[in-house]
């Protein structure tokens, strides 16, 4: 039990690293939470400091998720505290737990008053490792939606929903045998619902027609 607790704590702390705040203070001498939308995620950094730093924050946030499932989960010593009833081996299940915990750390970071980003980039890092094909499909959808609508939030929400949908189609339409499908699918649906929850204010603004758009042109 202690082994799993250590992994959960370390994953949460890794996810809690406030990349947006650190980058904005390092390159702009500002606290990104006091500018733009007030969010510490890559999208707000994109708007305030430019695409290069926005992309940097997105990559750093994605790295936190990947770090949890690739490195921190490897601290697992084979002492699972309860019976594993999933189709996955114990290590893969630990990876799922570490990934979710890192995402929770990003959304509710201990280093910023338990207020963080919306979880998209960190979730990206987790899913690229665990479900590469479905994540690549969702990433392509995200790029298309953002390119044509200029709404990052809309692209994020649709892409999050696309991950479990892509898995369902691959398994049931194209007959691809996905290991652990019955367990992985509910996990992906849960992550998608979490993303929708963190974007609830964006959804309200999208419906009202006053959501902020991004531009790729220099100001």
Task: Outline the secondary-structure elements.
Blueprint: H1 2-16, H2 19-28, H3 42-49, H4 51-70, H5 90-107, H6 120-130, H7 132-149, H8 152-172, H9 181-198, H10 200-208
Helix pairs in contact: 1-4, 1-5, 2-4, 3-4, 4-5, 4-6, 5-6, 6-7, 7-8, 8-9
Walk me through the structure.
The protein has 219 residues and is an all-alpha fold. It has one domain. It has ten helices and no strands. The chain is globular, with a radius of gyration of 18 Å.
- Mean pLDDT figure: 91
Terminal Cα separation, in Å? Answer: 53 Å
The count of DSSP E runs of length 2 or more, i.e. the number of strands, is 0
The tally of domains stands at 1
Our Rg estimate from Cα atoms comes to: 18 Å
Helix content: 55-70%
**Estimated share of beta-strand residues:** under 5%
**Low-confidence segments, ≥5 residues, pLDDT <50?**
none
Give the count of helical stretches. 10
Structural class: mainly alpha
Based on CA inertia axes, which overall geometry fits? globular
